[in-house]
């Protein structure tokens, strides 16, 4: 009797829907891992080349400017994400939470730091144009 109910459960629309949902979630997880890896590579290149440029422009590689600091925080969060993905016990929801935190920090880095307009990167701030 159990085999019949098991067969019915596996052929039901609910099982098929959950199977495809899990396949889509796994594909999205793989795509996010690939895109974050690519973005992490470009962020690393950007931070390193920015440090070389800063040494030529300001005489030091790193000044702990708000924009530099938040770029480093973003880099650190995504480095944590990539390390979490290497451990199979931490994959899934845990890595999704860390990548969501990284996404939030990117918004803070882009809007929050630019709205402050302080530090060496003040040329990138949003300014109000007086009438």
Automatic annotation (TrEMBL):
Residues 17-121 form the Cytochrome c assembly protein domain. GO terms for molecular function: heme binding. Keywords: Cytochrome c-type biogenesis, Membrane, Plastid, Transmembrane, Transmembrane helix. The keyword Transmembrane applies. Its main location: membrane. One of its GO terms (biological process) is cytochrome complex assembly. It is a multi-pass membrane protein. One of its GO terms (cellular component) is plasma membrane. It holds the Pfam family Cytochrom_C_asm. Coiled coil: none annotated. The chain crosses the membrane at residues 31-54, 69-84, 96-120. It is found in: Membrane. NCBIfam families: cytochr_II_ccsB (TIGR03144). This is Cytochrome c heme attachment protein. It comes from Nepenthes mirabilis (Pitcher plant). The gene is ccsA.
């Amino acid at each position: 009797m159990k085999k019949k109910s098991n067969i019915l459960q596996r052929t039901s629309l609910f099982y098929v829907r959950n199977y495809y949902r899990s396949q889509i979630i796994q594909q999205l997880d793989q795509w996010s891992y690939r895109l974050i890896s690519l973005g992490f590579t470009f962020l690393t290149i950007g931070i390193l080349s920015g440090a070389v440029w800063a040494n030529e422009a300001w005489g030091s590689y790193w000044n702990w400017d708000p924009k530099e600091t938040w770029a480093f925080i973003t880099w650190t969060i995504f480095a944590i994400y990539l390390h979490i993905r290497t451990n199979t016990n931490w994959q899934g929801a845990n890595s999704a939470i860390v990548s969501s935190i990284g996404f939030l920090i990117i918004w803070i880095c882009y809007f929050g730091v630019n709205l402050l307009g302080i530090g060496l990167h003040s040329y990138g701030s949003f300014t109000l144009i007086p009438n």
